[in-house]
Amino acid sequence: MKENKTGKRREDTLEAGADGIIEGRNAVIEALRSGTAIDKIYIARGETDAALGHIASTARGKGVVVVEADRRKLDNMSRTHSHQGVIALAAVREYASVEDILNAAREKGEPPLIVVCDELSDPHNLGAVIRTAECAGAHGVIIPKRRSAGLTAIVAKTSAGAVSHVPVARVPNLPALLKELKDEGIWVFGTAADGDRLLYEADLKGPAAIVIGSEGDGMGRLVAETCDFKVRIPMKGKLNSLNASAAAAILLYEAVRQRM
């Protein structure tokens, strides 16, 4: 039991709130023990406490991403103001595997249509991409384990419930994943302002993975080099780029048009 600023005693938060936040050492340990789906765990940078070390090693053993963060970041995230140096973000659902996504296409008898998000850190953008993917009939979305938003409550809300219907896989290495997709006969289309062909010249009727770059820097170098094609969206105004989720919508619905 702890005392808060009003002098009242409280227990560590044992369940995720509506925002998916689990904070306090006992609460996070219990979440790991009980098998709660956890997207990411933040631990105070520089802490040498044995309990926090145990949480970090247990989480990594379960494949959970562990991030060291400044205490100021933890303070800003905290709802209870007593996070004890650790905050976990619950995932709204378990992550799928890449094979689950490919199987979804096989079961429908359709050529795979997959969205790959290269380090989309804004949860609102990721949620919007997942929503569009569901509406366009894409078979799944793939994100990297690090430097990306995950299946958090904000993403779920922004997706308008689409996270319940679209398999989302998380992989440690996007370039390696793209090579595996190419080995499966899937063509990889990256979006880039300097793409060597217009979007409307791309053949999206066959097995396709569409790569959407990050909000600020676009696709990473290794990801871009792994793509079979780099396509550009015609830009007729004074600006030269679109929001990542808007770009995803344009690419996906061109694929829908071609496949109809």
From TrEMBL:
The entry's keywords: Methyltransferase, Transferase
Keyword Methyltransferase appears in the UniProt entry: yes
InterPro entries attached to this UniProt entry: Alpha/beta_knot_MTases, Ribosomal_eL30-like_sf, rRNA_MeTrfase_TrmH, SpoU_MeTrfase, SpoU_subst-bd, tRNA_m1G_MTases_N
Gene3D superfamilies documented for this protein: 3.30.1330.30, 3.40.1280.10
Statement: the UniProt record of this protein carries the keyword Methyltransferase: yes
The RNA 2-O ribose methyltransferase substrate binding domain, residue ranges: 21-96
NCBIfam families: rRNA_methyl_3 (TIGR00186)
Annotated family: Belongs to the class IV-like SAM-binding methyltransferase superfamily. RNA methyltransferase TrmH family.
UniProt protein name: 23S rRNA (Guanosine(2251)-2'-O)-methyltransferase RlmB
Taxonomic lineage: Bacteria, Bacillati, Bacillota, Clostridia, Eubacteriales
